Amino acid sequence: MKLQFGLLWIEDNFSEQEEAEIRSGAADAGFELEITNSKDGSDLDALSEHQAKFHAFDLILLDLKLAGGVLGDQLAPRVRELFRSTPILFYSGSESENDLRNRMANERIEGVYCAHRVDGTKFTTRAAELIQDYAHTLNRLSGMRGLAMEVVAEVDVICREVILELAVGENEEFAAGFLDKAVCDQSDANKETFPTLKDVSTRIDHPATDSMKAFNLFRKLLRKHIANLPNGVAKDKLSALRAATRDYRKSVLDVRNVLGHALEDRNDKGWLILDRNGKPFMTIDDFPGHRSTFLSQLRAVRQISDILITKD
Q: Which domains does the chain have, with CATH numbers?
């Protein structure tokens, strides 16, 4: 399961409003929209190679009138040849939906939806519907469980990098002491061995340092770092991002932990997720909200890392 929805948009002149409307529809389904634009389809071969490697595109938007006088229906056979199973939404502001369907029928193109640019169910609304329909195919326990584990795994890596970046000077002793206490308070077996580990890095990598301990240290070191910054935009930005991660435990880690031991059942509305005691935990109606929350938490942690860690 994933948080991104890939859109290949073959169009030479879409508006900011159209993009915003489709992004909003994707966000309602819990997805971050990743748009790749082709103005006339001349780069389809390279894009198809990218698709073969990464399955980057979940939907193709194809306009009738493209740059250089290229017509979308004439390009469609090549699109379908290269993207065998990817749904296509064919649209135009100058021809009716029925006329667009006829163009596709004449070219014998399968797997195509048609919409007018403005009239009726306009193409941005139809695109949002297709994205949300796609989301329904992912609304199963296995997908949501995997997504929660994926988000936590990435946050764990970022927390480790940020901790090691900030745990220098007097903060190294603070970080080591925090981890010693967090781990030893939990298990008598670690009281003798854990404090003897040589540095913060080996403590973070020890199995006793779970995701929550690392994340708590991440936030504490970040708070100390922010306190030492001069007043200004940089300090305000980091403070806001730290505040955005306040509910990470409840909204991501706790959900991950329950999903790790959950079961599926059916009710009259569809799939139902039960906790380990057989009590309802979430329904498929909750999935978009959880995806959105996972994404917002992950974005905040990524942005913190981008600010603090110098990338090669």
A: 4-137 (3.40.50.2300), 141-308 (no CATH)
